[in-house]
Design a protein that fits this description.
alpha+beta; Arc Repressor Mutant, subunit A; Rossmann fold; 4 domains; 5-stranded antiparallel sheet; 21 helices; elongated
Amino acid sequence: MQFLFADHALDLDRRELRRDSQAIAVGPLVFDLLAYLIEHRGRVVSKDDLFDHVWRGRIVSESTLTSHINAARKAIGDSGQDQRLIRTVTRKGFRFVADVTEVASLEETARLEAASAHPQPVDAPGLPDKPSIAVLPFDNLSRDGEQDYFADGVVEDIITALSRVRWLFVIARNSSFVFRGRAIDIREIGRALGVRYVVEGSVRRALNRVLVTAQLIDATTGAHLWAERFESALDDIFELQGQVAASIAGAVAPQLELAEIERAKGKPTTSLSAYDCYLRGVAHLHQGSRPAISEAITLFRAAIERDERFGAAHAMAAWCYFWRKVSGWMEDREQESAEGIRLARRGAEYGRDDAVALARSGHALLHLAGEIDAGIALIDRALVLNPNLAFSWALSAYARMWDGDIDGALTRFAQAMRLSPLDPEMYRMKAGIAAAHMFAGRYDLASSWAEESFLHMPSFLLVLAVIAASHALAGRQIRARQAVARVRELDPNMRISNLSDYLVIRSPEHQAIFMDGLRKAGLPE
């Protein structure tokens, strides 16, 4: 891939910078700096972005960055005074502002022409051993050519966000952008890039609003798996770009997981890999019932047997033990809690760079070991690694709520629901929102959210307890007593005095509210 701008060409394949036909000598870091600025020219690139992607997280000084920016400007005939090509945005970072034309290399062009002419080229890469996806350039349906920057920026941010999902194989921008403006069948693109899934979309600007559509396609069959539209006011184009990209990436990841679960279900048990077992376990975990959770534990253990360092499998198994605890299903509380804690610690150890493993392990440790601060730290680390996973935001919300931060919890629940509005674990999010409103004294809102969660999971002990307590605190005794009766059917051992055996509520005030509501609803002492 080559980037043409002004009278320069930056060739990524040959790692050359040329002016006309003359090569310009630049150091490797200056080259990487230029390449990153040009590739992300649709937005302002922060200093932290450059430290992370050019210096790979190494600690360097501000003066080092400044000297490399100056060297990059000098190499392309720019200066800090002129800023014709590289513009400094005060207190924000830098942006490459010149017009850029992307040109495929001769090798790329030949390969893509072959892909277009021959449905199954001999040298087409095979599918990797994990879910694979490419995000194609979004079509600009506006007459305004400036929207090209916005559309490209959205796609680049989606690629970056999906790249944080450890179980995904994501095609780099340079390869997927080769297909800009090319009328090639999605299945042929999938074969050419060696991916199972493709995201495509469009951007349209109307007056002061921007409409973005996106769809997820199975490139092996051409089947559409998901589609959504996003519309917003065009106040701050860079903020909007980030919001849209986060929404699309957050929605695509769970849809991919569901599609992969269906594929895993269709495989014979004799040929299941560790990842197949893991996916089947996730499907049972989403169901939330007692038999489903028991089967999920079995499947996660099967995944661990096939790959003993599979961090997410350890974490998910630990999380199942947490679910058994809060549902009153543990037969040997001490032994099962200890096993859940062991699995959670292994999940955090083996999955130290895996957002899924860290979030589930942290939440399990919070409940099973009572390590609220350590659990929150692990979940926060997961959100740093991947801020687009909805369930990490939901688990962070629960952790904040049990820690006493109601406003922080509700903000995080809202983010989780925005990222994944069709999430299979939505009932858990609604239950958490209900509990947060109850602790805040908003009993009508609490009972309303809890009733919604109950419709999807009638055996959810927490949500029934919240229904009972919130209705009782609001003076609605009939519904409160009905809910308590159902609580006692599900777990005859639940009492006011042993509430702390089920939930880790740090705030004495919040614990008193819950206990008072359950007492008024008729739960025995």
